[in-house]
Amino acid sequence: MGGGPEVPSKESGKKELVLCTLPWPEEGAKKGVEGLKEEFKDLEVKYFHSVFNNGKMEPLDVPEEYTTRASYLATLFWLPPTAKSLPNTKLIQFFSAGTNHIAQHPIYTDSKIPLCSANGVHGPQIAEWVIMMDLVHSHNLPKLYDLQKEKKWAQKEGMSVSDRVGKRVGILGYGSIGRQVARVAKAMGMDVIAYTASPRKTPESRKDDGYIVPGTGDPDGTFPSAWYSGTSKEDVHEFLKQEIDLLVIAVPLTKATTHFLSTPEFELLHKSNPRGTYVANIARGQVIDQPALVKALHGGLISGAALDVTDPEPLPADDSLWDAPNVLITPHCSGSTDVYADRAFEVLRENIRRQRSGGKLVNEVNRKRGY
């Protein structure tokens, strides 16, 4: 990831404050905090553990003396009530891929404080989750695992395998996660097609200008054999007509993408690929019309679904999605990794460099666009 010129740290005067309200005990973020202090000698870091579990954050009391002084705020969910509480804040670095969870907050709607996401830090682990789920499905592992627990040797149950060579993965939202899915899928012999909201007709427009974990992704946008774009239903349908074997949903949640996939889209997938499309959603649950998804699973319009996100979360125990055929559900954990904090702090450090040098911030949120 490139950036502006290296900016010498200030050696005199009062230190600027980086206020961290993050979901790890401070020891779990030690490497990232030490990296900040080592690079920027003029920074002081104040760390608060923001306890977060099953989609809910426990109340966190941050003294006003720290919010008033903070030049930079690193957070996942916590924000003070209004922008007046952050009079000196130059940017807010979210440690999440998106910011839809605070889209109605006054700091988002009424302030001009730059907001940046950690988009890019999730690529490797979520791509592994997507490919893992696709292989689990295509190799009939759930059934074989059930047989193992029953201590049954039934070879015929493992004979109907569909390998991935020559199959097509359609990536709805070709961002950092989709680009790493593309890298792994290409290595397996799959064809990749990409969908973006804005047209990407030139080689320059297809490059990834966000944060990239070194050695991953598709920095130059060379993996897809075809690109599709647009925001209308007709545009989306043209993409879904392309005989897709694995559909990866990786679009941000906005008003336009809410219930992006519903019964007409599942019917179109089935018509295009009667073998059955496997749907993997690692975006947000609301991108899919969930009752329509349950019907599509029961009706055989798709071959199955892997869902790391649902609507709502946590998914109630009596929700019909749990019992739908050929569905695998995980509790919004595909982005987890033992180096998550380290990567997110790298994004923060790069943004502090760029903010100080007047460069373009990494992953700055376009408030009007919603991501």
UniProtKB/TrEMBL annotation:
InterPro entries: D-isomer_DH_CS1, D-isomer_DH_NAD-bd, NAD(P)-bd_dom_sf. GO terms for molecular function: NAD binding; oxidoreductase activity. Pfam families: 2-Hacid_dh_C. The keyword Ligase does not apply. SUPFAM superfamilies: Formate/glycerate dehydrogenase catalytic domain-like, NAD(P)-binding Rossmann-fold domains. Residues 132-203, 231-334 form the D-isomer specific 2-hydroxyacid dehydrogenase NAD-binding domain. Keywords: NAD, Oxidoreductase. CDD domains: 2-Hacid_dh_5. The keyword Cytoplasm does not apply. PANTHER family: 2-HACID_DH_C DOMAIN-CONTAINING PROTEIN (PTHR43333), D-ISOMER SPECIFIC 2-HYDROXYACID DEHYDROGENASE NAD-BINDING DOMAIN-CONTAINING PROTEIN (PTHR43333:SF1). This is D-isomer specific 2-hydroxyacid dehydrogenase NAD-binding domain-containing protein. The lineage of its organism: Eukaryota, Fungi, Dikarya, Ascomycota, Pezizomycotina.
